[in-house]
Amino acid sequence: MRSGYNPEPMDWSPLWVSIATSVTATVITLFLGLAAAAWREGRKGPALALVDGIFLLPLVLPPTVVGFLLLLLFGRNGPLGQLFLKFDATIVFSWPATVIAATVVAFPLMYLTARAALEQVEPSLLQAARTLGASEWRVFREVALPLAWPGVLAGTILSFARALGEFGATLMLAGNIPGRTETIPIAIYFAVEANEMTQAATWCLIDIGISLALLAGLYYWTHLQAPQRMRWARR
Amino acid sequence: MPLEVQIEKKLLDFTLEVSFRAEAEPLSILGASGAGKTMLLRCIAGLERPDRGRIKLNDRVFFDSESRLNIPARQRRVSMLFQNYAIFPHRTVAENIGFGLEALPRDERSKRVAELIERTHLAGLADRYSRTLSGGEQQRVALARALAIEPEALLLDEPLSALDTHLRSQVEIQLQETFAAYRRPTLLVTHNMEEAYRLGARLLVLSRGRVIASGAKERIFQRPPSVEVARLTGCKNISRARTISDHSVEALDWGCTLRVAQPTVQSTAQPTGFVGIRAHHIEFVEANGAANEENVFPCWLVRSSETPFRITLFLSLQQHSSQSPQPESAQLQAEVYKEKWQRFRDKPFPWHVRLRTDSLFWMKE
Fold it and tell me: How would you class B356 by CB atoms within 10 Å of its CB: exposed for 0-12, middle for 13-18, buried for 19 or more?
């Protein structure tokens, strides 16, 4: 009966943790993904298949496997964990761990879309820039990137949505510390565990709302905006 | 010697193996599609790396496989005009033209851009984007952008192929003016023999990666050295031939014996070859009296094909017994203006054609 039940006031911290984590992870992913895609562009060779495989692995592995590998890497005895210990920093069960987990799982989406977008840029435009004396950096920054931008932006939105939804790897690496590492998906899991269905449902609705807004925005961008912006990219 | 090229590069189904020199004047590179023309330009521009050889412009070595030297495209100062013009779609006309002038101070850059806009008749279009420009305007933007960096050589890849016919002659004249003012090595790739002839001072004919003719364009068109060159320069009439004496040959495909002007007969050692005549060099003559003259033969019309002002007549030098002459029995193509054709179209067969000795040329395989 409800009479003895005294609902706790809603703790909004998972929302802020989730947003801070996803924004940070997306920014890092944007740069890493772009750099990887730009590096990969125009390269050929069997060794690159392996590189691609490694880049895309987080997309297909169960998040628990990713989380376990990250634990090995960042744990007290892991190579990166040891490195951070020298600066008196521990990654595991800290807020940066949520960012690391989200970055790793979002990276493949950014990499894939950025690569596809860069590959679509007409090669003769890049070559023309080179014959006009532009350095590779300038070719990338002033020709390739602006023309690939609609695709890169779509990748950014996808990465953000993926980072926002990250659960398994985050739980393993960052744990569930309210106010620090408890993101929305983790809050939902533990709310259900504790049989606090109203709270779980509230978080679910918030999560669905944010994701839907992002995907609608993405659709709007790629289908309604991009065709106009990209028309010049085709010719 | 402005531009020296001597390169080898293995391509998908043949090897590009080219060696030539180009002076400070326009050189047309003629060849069928897939002959390696574009690849050659790309090697000179530094966009592709040859397997072997050497490329030198003025006193700068761009590529030398022996000393493993390969100057990157951005340092060569060789501008290339791409077949699709490659205008940056996210930049305005002025920004496109100024792209290669980044190093200049802002004032000077905009002055130079304004100058080029003036010179290439693009006034009023400075702030437009390429998608709003016509093909001819895009081509001019590409040309202005290429000239902006004051390149030491200019490479043009099929500069007219993307344009409508009515624009071509106009753009061609502009290109001629540009070349005349530019006075540096200018390489122009085309598969169109008329373009090659009009725009180049000299000619290089390429086939499957090899130079099959090079030199003054007039000579190559008048006396193509081989069957392939003859075909590429638009010669429609080519017959296998056998030397009979110093000045006469038997044209085996046409079925006649011809007097020729050149003592063909460096070829006694090699008594077979080919004889050719261009379609518009075949003359129609009155039957009476002319019939016994030199190189005059009776002929029968097999079929014809009209263009707006001219007509191509497919002729046979033999009368065929069958009522429906086979098109493959047509052995000579003659091209005449329609006005002239009106004068003899209703005359009874056989007509008579003259293959003038000075229009005939002898070729090796």
Answer: middle
